[in-house]
Amino acid sequence: MEWAIFADVHGNLDALEAVLADARAAGAGRYACLGDIVGYGAEPDACCERVRALGCAAVVRGNHDHACSHRTSLAWFNPRAAEAARWTREHLSEENRAWLRTLPYRAVAAGAALVHGSLFEPPHWDYVVDTASARRHFERQRTETAFVGHSHVPCLFALRAGRVLGFRPPATPLVLDPGAGKYLVNVGSVGQPRDGDPHACYCLYDPEAHSVEWRRVEYDAEAAARKIRAAGLPDVLAARLLIGR
Ligand code: ZN
Fold it and tell me: Which residues surround ligand 1, an ion (CB under 5 A)?
């Protein structure tokens, strides 16, 4: 059974619908969401409802899900992210806010650990972007495979014989070798890719075959950008969707 594992939707319903259609067409029957369903984009409620209706095996909490559903300080965010978080707080329904508050920081599904940023102190939202941050994560990973989002940059880290290695995602499905070490898969971002490719990104995972496929999906980014501008959110949040930065 193929799993669709996705992260960082960020209120971009156009991208989410395109990803779910692609996953369905590819035969995915189970779903897991790695958080940041809201924040930045103009349709946070619709994205929450879409994810809730999927019947995901697991949904974990992202830093934006947390910030938009709690009265915490936004000092940690850059000014545009803070402005978007304030807007999202005002526009989220009470029901979806309550749901976001129930999300766990970590979960296990398909035999893999799921967390938004890193298993290194999940409530502190560490980014796994280099071998040092990957090592902090691996020290706490008990499963052979883990999936994260948070950086919006798809990639793979492997721990083999004590060495941490980083890889860019291959264009074709990759078969992991669990006997050879541990793996950390960053699934990229559905709603706000930052690796220079504006296509929505997510992973298909087959736990029996140990295969991971990073999928890039075309969607109407212009429509998502128009909605951001119409909502009065910072223009840069619309512009970045078109270039994937
Ligand atoms: Zn994010």
Answer: 8, 36
